[in-house]
Amino acid sequence: xxxxxxxxxxxxxxxxxxxIQAIDQALQKIGQTERVSAAFLFxxxxxxxxxxxxxxxxxxxxxxxxxxxxxxQITPEGQQQRSVVVALLAGxxxxxxxxxxxxxxQNSKAxxxxxxxxxxxxxxxxxxxxxxxxxxxxxxxxxxxxxHGLPAGEYTLGGALTGGHSRQMRAIxxxxxxxxxxxxxxAVLSGNIRVGVGxxxxxxxxxxxxxxxxxxxxxxxxxxxxxxxxxxxxxxxRHSRDWIFPPLNELIRLYPLGIEQNHASPLLVRSPLQVxxxxxxxxxxxxxxxxxAHLLVGSTTACVQAARQASREALRAVGEARPVLAIVIxxxxxxxxxxxxxxxxxxxxxxxxxxxxxxxxxxxIGQIAVDQENRPTLLNQHIEVILFGEPxxx
Length: 394
Description:
alpha+beta; six-stranded mixed sheet; globular
C-alpha cells in the first residue's frame, strides 16, 4: 500500500466543526481512517485549542497530531485566513509519535528537557530514516535555547515558532492529543519515509548599516548610540513615535537586521517583533551587542526566487523518493509582503514541486532547520519547505 497524503480546509466559524469538515475532506481523498499515520493542523488564531482537539478526536481517534495556530494558513492557492487546514499522511510503513509540553513560554529549559526525555529514545531508536518536527511559543519562549537543546544525532529537522504581529496574540501548539497556549509541541516520523527540508529568504542589504551599540537580551536599545526607533525614523522619514503604533509597529517586520558573523558566513537575519514605547526593538531572538547590522529589505521578486530555491533544496533532499506532501512554513513578513499578490509565493513552490503535490502550512515568527554544518538553527524571514516522500522499497 503506497504512502499517500491529502489536505482539507474549512471556514466554519466553530472550531470543532471546522476541524471535522477539513478532516472529512482529506479522508474522502485518502480512504479509511485506519490508514492515517499522522495529521498536520494549521488553524486560525480565532479557534480554541479544546475545540480543535475535540474535532480531531471525533474523526481521527488516536492519530498523532502536530500543528499550530497562525494568522494565515497556507494551501495550494496561497495564504488563507480564518480557516482550518488539515493535511493527512497515510501509509502502513510510517510510524509517528507526537507530544505537547506546557509552560515553554514561562520555563523554556524545563519544557525542552521534558520533551527530549520523552522523544529522544523514540527519535534515536526508530528504524529507517527519522524526522523531528518542533513548534514552540515564539513571543516569550526561547527558540534559541530550543535549537541548542535538541538531541544530537542523524535526523531531518523542521519547525517553527508561533506568534503574530501582536504580542498579545493567542497562539496554540498542537502535539499528540494535546494542545494549548505557551507550550512546545514535537513529532517524530520514521519508517519508509524520506523528508527533505529547504530554506531561503528574499531580503538583502540596501547600503545602510549600524553598530548594535546597546542590546539587552532580545531588546535592541540603540543603533549607533541612537534609540533604535530614531535610527529608522531618520531613514524612512517618519517620526520615531510613529513606529510605536500600528501600522508601522507591524510593518517593522519587513525591515529586519542582517548581522555580520564572519567572512565565510551569510548575514544572520534577525527580525523585530515590535517597537517598544521607549523606542527599543523587541526582536524574535537575541542579537549580539557590538556587531555590525545591515538594514535588509525584501521584494516579491526576490522572495519568489527564494521560494523556488527552498523547493529545489527540499526536492534534492528527498532524492529518488516519490514526493507526496509539502508542509510550507513562511515568516509572517511573507504574509505581509504578498498581501496584494496572494498566492504568488506558493505558486512558485508548486512550479518546482508540481501542481499535484498537496501543500499545507502557516505563517510564523521563526523557522527551525539545520545550517550548513547540520546544526539546528533559528531563522527569521525565511520560507521553509518540508517535503515528505516515499522511497522505493528494497
